[in-house]
């Protein structure tokens, strides 16, 4: 399988905040899928001097899209059971191993930091080769997904369902769509 840094992704690319998303989802009550987004996210894809690509991103924990009830939002954002945003206000991702293959698939190996824990992560997906947009700039995309165990990041809250089983899954599915604009 051929790996390429795709010549079209030279220079530096910044995520268009209005057209990019960072979602997290868990199995809820054993039957449903609870998904949320982070509204304040930044990301940058940049070509390195050695021809490789680097991807860096940040999400502000307080921007999580949980509106009501207020107690639920406060528990997820502020408590030590989950994000503890007062002490750890950002989720951070860093990669120096972005592989874009000729068949349009992508694999990104990096490190994800949530709270005070940094863990290796591999995300896979697809990319769209840049095209000229209506503003005269260049625009491409990167769509990735990965699954992490929230316990690895100190998110240990759990309750049991009356008939058995976890209220919230330990596995968290991360889905990232970056619409990238050339700087």
What does this structure look like?
This protein has 183 residues and is mainly beta. It has a single domain, classed as Beta Barrel (Lipocalin), CATH 2.40.128.110. The protein has 1 helix and 11 strands. The model is unreliable at 1-6 (pLDDT under 50).
- Which CATH class is shown? Mainly Beta
Describe the strand arrangement of the main beta sheet, using strand numbers.
2-5-6-7-8-9-10-11
Mean pLDDT: 92
Number of separate structural domains: 1
As a percent range, the share of helical residues equals under 10%
Main traits of this protein?
5% helix, 8-stranded antiparallel barrel, mainly beta, 183 residues, 11 strands, Lipocalin, single chain, disordered N terminus
Q: Summary?
A:
By secondary structure, the protein is mainly beta. It contains 1 helix and 11 strands; from the N terminus they run ββββββαβββββ.
What does the secondary structure layout of this molecule look like, with pairings?
Elements lengths: L2 E2 L7 E4 L5 E8 L3 E6 L3 E7 L5 E8 L9 H9 L11 E12 L3 E10 L2 E16 L5 E12 L21 E12 L1
Antiparallel strand pairs: 1-7, 2-5, 2-11, 3-4, 3-11, 5-6, 6-7, 7-8, 8-9, 9-10, 10-11
């Amino acid at each position: 399988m051929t790996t390429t840094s795709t010549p079209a992704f030279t220079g530096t690319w910044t995520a268009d905040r209005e057209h990019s998303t960072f979602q997290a989802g868990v199995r809820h009550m054993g039957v449903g899928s609870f998904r949320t987004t982070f509204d304040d996210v930044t990301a940058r894809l940049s070509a390195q001097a050695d021809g490789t690509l680097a991807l860096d991103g940040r999400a502000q924990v307080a921007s999580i899209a949980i509106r009501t009830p207020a107690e639920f939002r406060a528990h997820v954002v502020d408590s030590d059971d989950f994000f503890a945003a007062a002490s750890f206000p950002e989720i951070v991702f860093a990669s120096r191993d972005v592989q874009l293959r000729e068949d349009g698939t992508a694999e990104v190996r990096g490190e994800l930091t949530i709270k005070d824990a940094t863990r290796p992560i591999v995300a896979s997906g697809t990319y769209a080769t840049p095209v000229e947009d209506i503003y005269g700039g260049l625009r491409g995309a990167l769509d990735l997904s990965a699954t992490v165990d929230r316990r690895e990041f100190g998110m240990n809250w759990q309750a049991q369902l009356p008939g058995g089983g976890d209220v919230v899954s330990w596995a968290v599915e991360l889905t990232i769509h970056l619409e990238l604009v050339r700087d």
